[in-house]
Amino acid sequence: MFASPDAVLRPRLRDQARERLRTEIMSGVLAPGTLLDDEQLALRLRCSRTPVREALSDLGHLGLVEFRPNRYTRVTVPRRDELVPTLQALGLLFGGVVRTTIGDMEDRDRAALFRRVGLVLDCMAMPTWQWGADAITPVYRTFITACDNPLLASTLSGALDGLTYRLRHDDIRAALPWEHIRNGLVALRVAIDCRDGRLAERATWTVHLLQDPDRGRA
Predict the structure, then answer these.
(1) What is the pTM assigned to this prediction?
(2) Is the distance from CB of 153 to CB of 97 less than 8 angstroms?
(3) Domain HTH gntR-type: where (predicted)?
(4) How many angstroms separate the CA atoms of 152 and 93, rounded?
């Protein structure tokens, strides 16, 4: 039996709606707390409500949309009490990618990454800078691209938008120990320069406020 044209088209419409809305959320066009009405979105995106609902469900799994049955569907509102747990979750995923990737990087890619981390350190001195903004996300994505372990890479890639988005809280500059994080980034830059995967992983633990299990060992 052949699939109907509608059945073939619907997954593409769902993907298009999801990517359009994901881009609008990540770019700030749809601000935290924006109510998402599937009928209005369907009109704006020029599709039926079904792919819009499916797209919203996908974005909910990514952590970009939150649902309250019979109350609202809205763009996720980052919470201050989730900042540290979110950063730690990101670090657990990122640390494994870093450790398995850094030693095999091409010299050109390693040099570019070294400069990019330096840019992050420069950006941290800017009063309007936010973690998860354009300066830091490319560091994560560079490691994802270079990672030879497809499961690690796809896991971090799939979680990246949702986790970095949850770090966009207005109080993030007051809520996190930025000097400690900066020290971790400096250590990461050193590890990148000397191709030390273990040191790089430990540096990511510092950046993401994870306890170093090697600390205190004889």
Answers:
(1) 0.85
(2) yes
(3) 11-78
(4) 8
Length of the chain: 218
Q: Domains in the chain, start-ordered, CATH in brackets?
A: 5-75 (1.10.10.10), 80-207 (1.20.120.530)
SS3 of 211, please? coil
Q: State both tokens at 16.
A: 């298009």
- 25 neighbors 64 (Cβ within 8 angstroms): yes
Is residue 2 very low, low, confident or very high in pLDDT (cuts 50, 70, 90)? very low
- Alpha carbons 196 and 173: distance in angstroms, whole number: 30
CA atoms within 13 A on the CB side of 24: 19
Q: What is the distance between the alpha carbons of residues 39 and 30, in angstroms, rounded to a whole number?
A: 16
Distance separating alpha carbons of residues 122 and 135, to the nearest angstrom: 10
